[in-house]
């Protein structure tokens, strides 16, 4: 018991824009169609959303990002879903149309 109140507290005491945690997370994706390497920058202040219980997500996931990435060499759209812990470390990812290589 008490989980609901505890969750509420977490929402109000842990805003996404915590001081010292702003910045960008970088990924290098490779397009499945043309092998282009695409660097993707995810801003922790605007691109990342908080994971709520009803969203599911892997254990320990606190933030997630969903992004569509288009390279410059072809029109293959890459869909990236990434889950992060509270330190913005990637703990799980799902990429359609490409893969994470760095
Ligand atoms: Zn491509």
Description:
The protein starts with a helix and ends with a strand. A hairpin with a 5-residue loop joins strand 1 and strand 2 (37-43). It has a 4-stranded antiparallel sheet, with no helix packed on it. Strands 2-1-7 form a 3-stranded antiparallel sheet, with no helix packed on it. It is mainly beta and 102 residues long. The longest helix has 11 residues, at 3-13. The chain has one helix at residues 3-13, and strands at residues 24-31, 37-43, 49-50, 63-70, 77-84, 90-96, 98-100. The protein has one domain. Zinc ion binds at residues 31, 33-34, 36, 71, 73-74, 76.
How many strand segments? 7
The SSE order reads HEEEEEEE
User: Main β-sheet: number of strands, strand sense, barrel status?
Assistant: 4 strands, antiparallel
Number of helical segments with 4 or more residues: 1
The small molecules bound here are:
zinc ion
Number of domains: 1
Q: State the helical fraction.
A: 10-25%
Shape: elongated
Helix and strand layout, with pairings?
Elements: H1 3-13, E1 24-31, E2 37-43, E3 49-50, E4 63-70, E5 77-84, E6 90-96, E7 98-100
Antiparallel strand pairs: 1-2, 1-7, 3-4, 4-5, 5-6
Précis, in short:
The protein is 11% helix and 42% strand. It has one helix at 3-13; strands spanning 24-31, 37-43, 49-50, 63-70, 77-84, 90-96, 98-100. A 4-stranded antiparallel beta sheet has the order 3-4-5-6, with no helix packed on it.
